[in-house]
Amino acid sequence: MVSWSDETSEDSVMNISSSCDGIIKLPSTMHDPNFNGTDADVNVLCEHGEPAERLVAFEGMHTGSRFLGCTKKEGINCGVVQWIDFEWPDSMEKALAKLWDMYEESKPGRTNDNLESSFVIHNLTEEKKKLQENYDSLYADVNALLDAQQQRGLELSNQKEQKQCLDVKIAELETIVGNLKAELAKKEEEKKKVREDYDSL
C-alpha cells in the first residue's frame, strides 16, 4: 500500500497524467465503505483537472486493488489515474486471472441452464394441466355414478349387489384420484424446485 503522507503535504495538488503510459481503462469496481469518494489527504487530479475518485477494482487480476480513477462520466475518461496498492504476487495474479476466465467461460453454460430450466418449467406446467384435467374428468365420473345410482330406483333385491359393485368402482376411482393428487403435488414440488434453482442462477 502506498502512503501519501511522506510524499505530499496536505495543501499540495498532484496532477498525475496517464498519457505517458497510455490510458488505463477503468476496471469494474465494487463498493468499499472504507475507500470511496475523493482522496481527503491528497488532492490528486486527473487529466481533466478534477479530483480523482477512490475506487476498488473488481475485475481480472486487479480484483481487490485500490486505485484513484477519473470521475468523468461523459466524454473521454482518463481511466486509472494512480494505483494505490502494489501489484499482487504472480501466483495471486494468475489465480485471479484463472478465476475470471472460468467465470467468463461459465456464462454460456449458465445461459443454457436457464433456457433448459425454462423448458422444464413449461413442460411441468403442461403436464400438471393435463393431470388436473384427468382428475376433473374422474371426479365428474364418480359424481355421475353416484347420481345414476340415486336416480335408478332399482328393486331392493338388486340394489345391494349394485351398491357393492359401485362401492368397488368408487374405491378404485378414489385410489386413482388419490394417486393423481399425489402426482400433482409431486409435480408442483418439482416445479417449485426448478423455479428456485432458476431464480438462484
Overview of the structural elements:
The protein is of the alpha+beta class and 201 residues long. The protein folds into two domains: 1-87, no CATH class; 93-199. The protein is built from two helices and six strands; from the N terminus they run ββββββαα. The chain has helices at residues 90-151, 156-199; strands spanning 13-15, 29-30, 43-45, 53-57, 66-69, 80-83. The strands form two sheets. The chain has a four-stranded antiparallel β-sheet with strand order 2-4-5-6, with no helix packed on it. The protein has a two-stranded parallel ribbon with strand order 1-3. A hairpin with an 8-residue loop joins strand 4 and strand 5 (66-69). Helix 1 (90-151) runs antiparallel to helix 2 (156-199). The longest helix has 62 residues, at 90-151. The protein starts with 12 loop residues before the first strand and ends with a helix. Residues 1-21 have low confidence and may be disordered.
Write the layout of secondary structure elements.
Elements: E1 13-15, E2 29-30, E3 43-45, E4 53-57, E5 66-69, E6 80-83, H1 90-151, H2 156-199
Parallel strand pairs: 1-3
Antiparallel strand pairs: 2-4, 4-5, 5-6
Helix pairs in contact: 1-2
**Separate helix tally:** 2
What is the total number of structural domains?
A: 2
Structural class: alpha+beta
Overall morphology: rod-shaped
What's the number of extended β-strand segments? Answer: 6
**Major sheet strand order:** 2-4-5-6
Q: Return the average pLDDT rounded to an integer.
A: 75
Oligomer: single chain
Largest sheet: 4 strands, antiparallel
**Helix coverage percent:** 40-55%
Give start-end ranges of low-pLDDT stretches. Answer: 1-21
Distance between the termini: 36 Å
Protein name: Zinc finger GRF-type domain-containing protein
Organism: Triticum aestivum
Keywords: Coiled coil
